[in-house]
Amino acid sequence: MHPSMKRLYAAAAHLDSPIRGQSAVARALGQSPQTLKNWESRATGVSAAGANKAQQMLGISSTWILEAQPPMLIGGPSPVSSSATPCDYVRVQQLDAEAGMGEAVENVDYPEVIRAIDFEPGYIRSIVGFVPAPGRLRLITGNGDSMQPVIQPGDAVVVDTGITSFDGDGIYLINMGNGQQIKRLLDRGVIHVASDNKSYGEPFPMPDGTLIGGKVYLRNRIERFN
């Protein structure tokens, strides 16, 4: 196994909420297990993009992964244990669930919580506009390319599950009857469903019976907005 992968696995196991094993680390990074398997065996090890994602999403230093330069873990948003969260932080749980950006994805009724992340209230307020009640925000992974360039395949997004009806133009988690999808909803007198990737065609009227599971915010852009 490439040394950079050994360092990634070791650091993931040392998080406050440990992540162990290829599949679990892959889910936490929004990658496929095959991608991690490739990193394990290839001569260059973990890609620079993968190391940067580990730093952004898990708080594992990219220079530690790639060059073995300490510290192993950095500050900022970081995984935490399931113990009580300080009252001046907002906890967001990442679920073992995906939402399709193209084809819909069916998830189990009660997805497992992979990990939890604590954010400062001001950090959340700058993105969502307010500090929500505990448990209202969830992190899930987008799968597919229909929302490019706004959301990339494998990006983890924040879902405000307190919004279950149309709340103005924006990106939503919806279910049109065949699984969860991330789509843009537009008010054109009648609500339309749109993909940001224009190769997926023109917006179309939202089908009757469509369920809205929440409004989507881009967790991978939180750092860029502050």
UniProtKB/TrEMBL annotation:
This is Peptidase S24/S26A/S26B/S26C domain-containing protein. InterPro entries: LexA-like, LexA/Signal_pep-like_sf, Peptidase_S24_S26A/B/C. Keywords: DNA-binding, Transcription, Transcription regulation. It comes from the Bacteria. Residues 119-202 form the Peptidase S24/S26A/S26B/S26C domain. SUPFAM superfamilies: LexA/Signal peptidase. GO terms for molecular function: DNA binding.
